[in-house]
Amino acid sequence: MTTLNQPKLVTVFGGSGFVGRHVVRVLARRGYSIRVAVRRPDLAGHLQPLGGVGQIVAVQANLRNRDSVDRAVQGADHVINCVGILFESGRNTFDSVQEFGARAVAEAARAAGAGLTHISAIGADTGSASVYARSKGRAEASILKILPDAVILRPSIIFGPEDGFFNKFAEMARFAPALPLIGGGATKFQPVYVGDVAEAVARSVDGKVAGGAIYELGGPRVMSFRECLEEILKITQRKRALVSLPWSVASLMGKISSFIPFIEPPLTGDQVVLLKSDNVVSADAASESRTLEGMGIAPTTVEAILPSYLTRYRPHGQYSGTGSEA
């Protein structure tokens, strides 16, 4: 544990990923010592410039290997779990990573006497038809049983420079003549900026967020799937047809893609199931101030951030519309 005037030690599982790297950046600015627990420490060098010399150290850990989890947590004052997967591949299943892995982290944090902040997802529900959502829901229940004072954060879809949602469809719009409106495009999202999620995590480490509760994080604007694609096309200055894709067709495509050896399948059957439910902050969370606003964080708009990284998908990149194309 920490001594007088020594920065608090925080272990961040998944600290080299999309959300994790932003969490590490915010914690480093606050002066914390950070231990980044990842499967491949040799691929986490991009985190070093985010802090001072020796402030950020990468260590090897795999959530399926309990001993490695215990070693990564040893001596930490607070633990953050940013690990999550969107599709199953080989031994990386929803149960092994998002349920067993999350439980292992919680048990290790309890043994070390450390606090815990866990990043889950809106829609987590033990009774969901989605395997992904069920594993998230079971993880939450296990964590609060193991560590009743844990902080659980449920973000909606997260946007930022390295996101896998807006970037994916912007890239698709570069080549495809049309973009798919899965289920008609009526599903609602509440996109939340990755920097706001990272700030919420940091405030939980600071002790400014009450434990033993589940917080739902959403941005200031609720957008339908159609509106998300329209925003992408507007920013990237591309004209593409938006074609409705019935649930039955989308489900069939998702099941087929699951059997094709993609590095990342464009769509899975379980993702289609998820898209049948809105992904927005619940009325209960809003009424009880278990939101970004309740933490004192003003949510960032998509309009303020998306152009900063989607302009590269324009026909002439960031210079489109400046008169320099010629």
Structure description:
This protein has a domain at 9-160 and 190-219 and 279-300: NAD(P)-binding Rossmann-like Domain (Rossmann fold), CATH 3.40.50. The radius of gyration is 20 Å and the shape is globular. α2 runs parallel beside α3. The strands form 4 sheets. Strands 3-2-1-4-5-6-11 form a 7-stranded parallel sheet, with helices on both faces. With 326 residues, the protein is an alpha/beta fold. The chain has helices at residues 18-29, 66-73, 94-112, 131-146, 166-175, 194-206, 225-236, 247-257, 269-274, 283-287, 302-310; strands spanning 9-13, 33-38, 56-60, 78-81, 115-119, 151-155, 158-159, 178-182, 188-189, 192-193, 213-217, 223-224, 241-245.
Which CATH top level class of the domain at 9-160 and 190-219 and 279-300 fits? Answer: Alpha Beta
CATH topology value of the domain at 9-160 and 190-219 and 279-300: Rossmann fold
Query: What gross morphology would you assign?
Result: globular
Adjacency order of strands in the biggest sheet: 3-2-1-4-5-6-11
Distance between the termini: 61 Å
Rg on CA atoms, Å: 20 Å
Mean pLDDT: 93
Residue share in helix = 25-40%
Task: Tell me the name of the CATH homologous superfamily of the domain at 9-160 and 190-219 and 279-300.
Answer: NAD(P)-binding Rossmann-like Domain
Counted by DSSP, the helix tally is: 11
**Which spans have pLDDT < 50 for at least 5 consecutive residues?**
none
Structural class call reads alpha/beta
The proportion of strand residues reads 15-25%
Largest sheet: 7 strands, parallel
Number of DSSP-assigned strands: 13
One letter per element, helices H and strands E, the order comes to: EHEEHEHEHEEHEEEHEEHEHHHH
CATH architecture of the domain at 9-160 and 190-219 and 279-300: 3-Layer(aba) Sandwich
